[in-house]
Model the fold of this input.
Amino acid sequence: MRHLLALLTICLVSPARAEVVDVVKGHILPGYARLAEATRALSAATQETCDTDDLAPAYHAAFDAWMAVQHLHLGPVEDEGRSLAIAFWPDPKGSGRRAQAALLTGDPAQLAPEAFAGQSVAARGLMGLERLLWPEAPLPADACPLIRATASDLATLAAEVHKGWTGGFADLLLTAGEPGNTRFLSKAEVQQALLTIVVSDLEHLRDQRLGRPLGSFDRPTPERAEARASGRSQRNIVLALQAQRDMVLHLSPEAAKTLAALDHAISLAKALPDPVLAATADPSGRLKVEILQQAVEQARMVALEELGAALGVGLGFNAKDGD
Amino acid sequence: MATRRAFLAGLAAFSLPAPSWADVGSPSFLAAGKLGEGFVLHGLSVTGASTFSIPLPARGHAAAAHPTRPLAVAFARRPGTFALALNCQTGDVLHELAPPDGRQFNGHGVFSADGTLLYTSEVVAETSQGRIGLWATDGFRRVGEWASGGIGPHDLKRLVDGRLVVANGGIATDPQDRTNLNIDSMRPNISLLSPEGRIDAQAELPPDFRQNSIRHLALGPDGRIAFAMQWEGDMAEAVPLLGLWTPGNDPVLCPPRQEDAFRMKGYAGSIAMAADGTVALTSPRGGVVLLHDTLGTPLATHPRADACGVAAMGEAFLLSDGSGALWDCTAETLRLLKDSGPSWDNHIVAIT
Done:
């Protein structure tokens, strides 16, 4: 009888619904909980010290936690520019650095939590902290007050995103198509949003995390690699791919081709010759990065086809179509 | 070529008394979409109700609505080798318009106020030099063409005084596959053409923004022209995608709020200006609609996946999306009018 009931339950919960629940409860919510915890720990650590070596483990733990959720461009993290304030990259015009220089030498009142939350998104978050902990040139003033303000703001942002999900946004995904839910008019809309996240993040990886340091063959630009000062460029690529794999595993566990394509890309990313992609400047090292870039593109195409078919959705009718 | 059946249908439809939009339910808008594997053109009321629906033989790009008769011209997607004049009562294809040799339609068209002429945005296929094609609507005969004032014209609108404003997107494309050929040297402009086709005024963007293709236009009640852009430069740069132009002055670019700077993903799909001067800008790629006040200052950002078509509806907007929903959109709210419609395509065209 119990087996029969269990079977009935399985039949009643549509697979579509189960996928969304799994992604929300198995991937998104735990990821944001860990980010909130890791950024809170980093902020606490800055109260003890501003020494780079001492803060490095907490900084890396917070960045690792962000890499597990950074692809989720949906909901609370998009509101009020939070995803930008948590990690503003790339910043080709150096606006974060300029804004920080003004904060380092300016009125300390700007570092109070409310005032700081109104500062440029480019000056805040993980990339802002990286420039203070691993500065390219000597900073014009003691960075400790700004390090503390930035870490505290980061913890607040992460807590807001987590609360936004647990306090309502997760329910919007889980009640898609029910009366009163005008954010998601059907389960298909949620599935399309989740598929879009996977595909868009692989595009971002291809074009930005890999494309920027690659530049062109004649003019490689390894100095444009992400999180170079903290030595995380390669680590971020591996973590981004692993986060995608975890998301796909929850979204469509049967998607064997997609998982295999991601595994292939992960193994290539782990085998890159150096942690900051400096090798893009020499022909053989460059080739390895290009092969990884092709593997990422392959994973993107496979995911679009296989997940799209499994979920019964595609990318948006207008979104995929330039005009 | 008009078939005998279409010719007879045309005779029937357009013999006296002349049919009007009232004969197809007095729609305020035209919108195309995909339904199953087929394509349809709907007339829509201000409540989002469909007043008529006719099949389209292929996915269209945009439509032009005759000012009085229930007649629409649907343009093929680029490179546009044909456009169809459609009887909105019967769905019959009244005429198939083919651009002259060496020309391609480029997505949009508009009727003259009296409905006797149709203006079409076109390019010389080999060079992407812009042209405005002129067609007499009795029989849709080609009667002439003008220079559009730039490369790659896309949207065009008719002003109340009969002048035309044209968005010359600046992008030269491969005549076969639409590949962009001149991203490093593009110089989009917006041009105002007299009723005789003379270029009365023209505006370019500042040098830093020349990779911002001007593609779609909206006319304000006060004579201002709003334009929507698509950024072809480095996606890491946050650039304005909205501009306002009063002919005779420099265009004013309206940057987004810093926190929303990347939400449109460098891509504005459609634009409209409401009766009170509020401007709506959609980004299907970013899944957002941005509302702005009359000066172009951001008022609100509404998330909505795949939202693209937008048209003024008094002081509000009618918004459509690719999952088949129609919305009443203001700075304050996004209110669902109707769902489960076709996957609405890029544009909603006001019948004026």
Q: What stands out?
A: The interface with chain A takes residues 34, 61, 107, 215, 230, 234-237, 257-263, 267, 269, 284-285, 287, 303, 305-308, 321-323, 325, 334-336, 339, 343-346 of chain B (CB under 8 Å). The radius of gyration of chain B is 19 Å. Helices of chain B lie at 4-14.
